[in-house]
DNA sequence: GTCTATAACGAGATAGAC
DNA sequence: GTCTATCTCGTTATAGAC
């Protein structure tokens, strides 16, 4: 599936105690880092092997050794990104905070991406969806599904505990959160304005809980 | 709204009594139609002159006669799209409905785009922003600015009349609406699921007014 | 694991005929 | 206003040396 030619020659890159996904060699891992940054800023159709090779100071041919083609590289990018995101959500769960605080933490993940002047990888790929190879399409949808599932559970727990209030289903509310935060990133990034994102996140999450959300410096609520 | 069908080359394409923007020749207008559809579905970096020429059954060279380069074509696309969108908003204003109904109409404009399995032109370009020529960048931001200004006024009027309720500034709320609807389109399109968009729109607009919104056939909420 | 070299193709763009 | 023909460049990808 991922076409990492060989395994690590040294230690490989591991995340932690729970092993998620394939481990890439140091070079393959760095290729993914560079490609990821390029896709998140320029889009999958807006970068080339030449771009990655130039930034890494290796040749295009070397890239093909690690990832047979752009499609395989793209697939690996999503898989790694999704695994990292899932790990971040698990970390939030393990912190054992209240549902409302979990939603704040969720929004903070988006904010961190935007801080690096990047778009969410899968949000970017969602825009280019029609041009993507099938394997990438499937992976993109799975990413959103995973987000939805996690949010749904947080929302249900919050509603059961009485700390979150919302109309309609938890699923629709989860989809609203995902869509709104993705869109907030999409629009805020061209303006280079973090506050634009924060204002939307505050508005969205603010309707779910009485307490102020997301790095709320001004406590007008 | 958004993207009319085909016009004959003798009549040129006019919107109505109030003339907005430059009038294109029949051919130029059809080029814009085809290119618009391609950008909205595949992105600016996901289509080529060859694609347009093929669909129109003319040659690439003919395209260059009407639009010197891809940058100029892109600029013309945004300008026309923004003018059409502005005209649609003016039409909503002239209908003289209540603020809440205007917001519904606004969301319907997005829904119509999604119905054609397209992304908002400027939402798509926002994703590709970093790769766009300067003139296109400016035009994209102006589109969002115009949306924001219009929504801001609707929101202010609604709040003054007591038919809309929201916390914070009208500007931040306007930005929330834009971001949320753009993001809802972005995510709903890959799933090919209109309901996904509707659910988000209902949730977002529902927090602003007591009445159900957006083509709410079932008022069970 | 990385290189040189190159194939094979498509991109945006131009010149000049009709 | 559209054509044929061509140019130049960048793209993905492969073969084979080191």
Largest sheet of chain A: none
How far is the N terminus from the C terminus of chain A?
49 Å
What is the mean pLDDT of chain A?
Answer: 90
Q: What fraction of residues of chain A sit in β-strands?
A: under 5%
Count of β-strands of chain A: 0
Describe the structure.
Two copies of one chain form a homodimer. Chain A contains nine helices and no strands. In chain A, 44% of the residues are buried. The longest helix of chain A has 28 residues, at 134-161. With 221 residues, chain A is mostly helical. At the A-B interface, helix 6, helix 7, helix 8 and helix 9 of A face helix 6, helix 7, helix 8 and helix 9 of B. Chain A binds a DNA duplex (18 and 18 nucleotides) through helix 3.
Brief summary:
The first copy, chain A, is mainly alpha-helical.
Descriptive key words:
homodimer; 221 residues; mainly alpha; 9 helices; elongated; disordered N terminus; DNA-binding
Topology overview:
Two copies of one chain form a homodimer.
Chain A: H1 26-42, H2 49-56, H3 60-66, H4 70-95, H5 99-115, H6 121-127, H7 134-161, H8 170-191, H9 194-206
The structure holds a DNA duplex (18 and 18 nucleotides).
